[in-house]
Amino acid sequence: MKFFIDTANLEQIKEAQALGILDGVTTNPSLMAKEGITGENNIINHYKAICELVDGDVSAEVISTDFDGMVKEGEALAALNPQIVVKLPMIKDGVKACKYFSSKGIKTNVTLVFSAGQALLAAKAGATYVSPFIGRLDDISTDGLNLIAEIRQIYDNYGFATEILAASVRHIMHIIDCAKLGSDVMTGPLSAIEGLLKHPLTDIGLAKFLADYKKGN
Ligand code: E4P
Questions:
Q1: From ligand 1's centre to the CA of 6, what distance in Å?
Q2: What kind of architecture, by CATH, is found in domain 2-215?
Q3: What are the boundaries of each domain within the chain?
């Protein structure tokens, strides 16, 4: 399972990269705004900075909602660095743009996916990644993890190469459950990634080992 970090915060990206387990980064316009990154040039420079920090895929989202605009923006983003994955919304023109980019060998991430039908369309359009937002489904009392299971079944039935990128991950149980269900990738905050490290018995055990070591010295 690949681990992506879902942030535009360079310090957090550095920290996850230093852990040695990071496979990529996802961003979106809200995450950029949260870091105070606004304006086209600043956003472009920020993507370049992220690509320098990590080795893997970096999702960069288009703002246009029409086919021509998405193609223009996506081509400019893809030209920044081979690590860039063009992130497209799950709307009619987004599906068309996904087909356009996939036929040109440019990586895509179809975002804002909330149903199995949407995921099926993304795969048919040749998406590299499909991003079901499991946390936002949970927020409206729907089973986000069930969507991962449904997409896994559909993709396996037909051998679709599109990777399931579980997005809107909020906590460690989301990560573990996505891994059990066979999600190819998860993207989440640093807190959820680092949360995987923690177990009280590890802390208690380590404290005892160190105390016993001191007794003998
Ligand atoms: C995915 O690519 C999105 O950036 C993200 O996971 C959305 O998460 P949120 O629901 O926590 O905003």
A1: 7
A2: Alpha-Beta Barrel (3.20)
A3: 2-215
Which residue has a Cα nearest atom 12 of ligand 1? 168
What pTM was computed for the model? 0.96
Taking the C-alpha atoms of residue 41 and residue 25, their distance in angstroms, rounded to an integer, is 20
In one-letter notation, the amino acid at residue 34 is K
Q: Is 87 assigned a catalytic role? A: yes
Would you give per-residue pLDDT tens digits along the chain (217 residues)?
999 999 999 999 999 999 999 999 999 999 999 999 999 999 999 999 999 999 999 999 999 999 999 999 999 999 999 999 999 999 999 999 999 999 999 999 999 999 999 999 999 999 999 999 999 999 999 999 999 999 999 999 999 999 999 999 999 999 999 999 999 999 999 999 999 999 999 999 999 999 999 998 8
CA 121 to chain centre: 19
Q: What is the CB < 6 Å shell around ligand 1?
A: 6, 26, 28, 111, 131, 133, 135-136, 167-168, 187
Q: Is 76 helix (H, G, I), strand (E, B) or coil?
A: helix
Q: CA 180 → CA 11, 153, 176, 186, distances in Å?
A: 30, 13, 6, 12
Q: Residue 85, Cα to own-chain centre: how many angstroms?
A: 11
